[in-house]
Specification:
Length: about 300
């Protein structure tokens, strides 16, 4: 895909995602004000918006006028909550997120915990509101997001990532962490979008697999950035994986094997997207770009 066209489409989708995020979630003046200020502080902190962009683009791949804004916003709410909670002292204990003090540093621990909590039901409310004319679709979207964010995927992956004392079956454990902590939310971004666009069951499965593959590759890139990136470019502390002897693909298999795996997974993800009767040019280009991102 032409680079300028890709950039234009990407920028347009980020804008659409940001606009939806602003208009579909409560303002900072909503009571209780401090709680809503903390929610807005994290929602507006200027992330890359990859998940909502993937969701919007997946829907448009099947139907150009498909409107996935509520789902895209719901996914960003879950993502933001997970980052707020991950930064807390009882988890990753990180003072910096997206180049700014993390939520509990800008506010306080209790407010950050509650801001994260409040983003979870908000996500599901958005799904029920956004697609209320299509009850079956709502059921599918809610079920699928709950599964991705739940105890066997996002939260489960985080739980296993924190369980550093158990050194057995490292490669199986790593696979579980990668699929849960990182890939689940990227994969569900594609599948919710595909469902809203009207994809067939077979196409949804291709999108699910593509999301898992691209999602794992995304985390492996994160590992490389942690090893070689800078705090200035990433907006968060670096070098922690090595220092903490963390279970990562790069620590387990080395940098060269990580690079090779990123390429293999990205090729597989593109193959899955190409297998669908949909216009996946933009998504293929995005997934390819994600593999070489610098932040
Ligand atoms: C359930 C509390 C809880 C945590 C879930 C999200 C998470 C696990 C941990 C955060 C740390 C981490 C490395 C997660 C893996 C996924 C990942 C790379 C998140 C960062 O995503 P980006 O780079 O973030 O898309 P931005 O800031 O651009 O939105």
């Amino acid at each position: 895909m032409d680079a300028a066209l890709f950039q234009k489409q990407f920028d347009d989708l980020v804008q659409e995602a940001e606009k939806a995020l602003r208009s579909l979630t409560p303002s900072a003046t909503t009571t209780p004000v401090r709680l809503h200020e903390a929610m807005r502080y994290s929602l507006d902190a200027g992330g890359k918006r990859l998940r909502p962009v993937l969701c919007l683009a997946a829907a448009k791949a099947f139907r150009a006028d498909a409107d996935a804004r509520h789902a895209a916003t719901a996914i960003e709410c879950i993502h933001s909550y997970s980052l707020i909670h991950d930064d807390l002292p009882c988890m990753d204990n990180s003072d910096l997120r997206r180049g700014r003090p993390s939520c509990h540093k800008a506010f306080d621990e209790a407010t950050a915990l509650l801001a994260g909590d409040a983003l979870i039901p908000l996500a599901f409310k958005l799904l029920t509101q956004g697609y209320s004319d299509h009850p079956t679709l709502v059921q599918e979207l809610v079920g699928e997001l709950a599964e991705a964010a739940g105890s066997t995927l996002l939260v489960g992956g985080q739980a296993e990532d924190m369980n550093t004392s158990d050194k057995k079956n490292q490669s199986e454990k790593l696979e579980f962490i990668l699929r849960g902590k990182t890939a689940a939310m990227l994969s569900v971004s594609l599948t919710l979008g595909a469902r809203i666009g009207g994809a067939s069951a077979k196409e949804i499965e291709h999108f699910r697999l593509a999301g898992q593959q691209a999602g794992i590759a995304f985390q492996l890139v994160d590992d490389l950035l942690d090893a070689h990136g800078t705090t200035a470019s990433l907006g968060k502390p670096v070098g922690a994986d090595k220092d903490n002897d963390k279970l990562t693909f790069a620590n387990l298999y080395g940098i060269e094997a990580t690079r090779a795996r990123i390429k293999q997974l990205t090729d597989e993800a593109v193959g899955n997207l190409r297998a669908c009767e949909a216009n996946t040019d933009f998504l293929c280009a995005l997934i390819t770009q994600m593999a070489s991102r610098k932040s």
